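Whiteboard transcription, Tuesday session. T.W. wrote the structure tokens on the left side:
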């Protein structure tokens, strides 16, 4: 089973989106959306960014190989090209 987006009520009559892992672990919570339509558009944006956006590392430098820290993903030329270490 894949992870999923959960559309939930927020304070002030708005909505939030919760990104949940397959095991039910909460991964991320969105910003506030005033309408359900805005929240659904937010889900589409999250999908686009997650599928194509690069990882930009703003963390402090450590002696550990930075690629090992990036979610334990298997090293591939395509993934390596999408990881930028910005200051």
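and on the right, the sequence the group agreed on:
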């Amino acid at each position: 089973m894949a992870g999923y987006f959960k559309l939930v009520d927020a304070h002030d009559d708005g909505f939030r989106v919760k990104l949940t892992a397959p095991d039910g672990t909460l991964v991320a919570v969105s910003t506030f959306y005033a309408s359900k339509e805005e929240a659904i558009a937010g889900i589409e944006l999250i999908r686009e960014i997650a599928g194509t956006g690069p990882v930009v590392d703003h963390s402090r430098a450590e002696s550990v190989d930075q690629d090992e820290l990036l979610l334990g993903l298997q090293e591939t030329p395509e993934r390596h090209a999408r990881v930028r270490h910005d200051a």
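Someone added at the bottom: The two ends are 37 Å apart (CA to CA).
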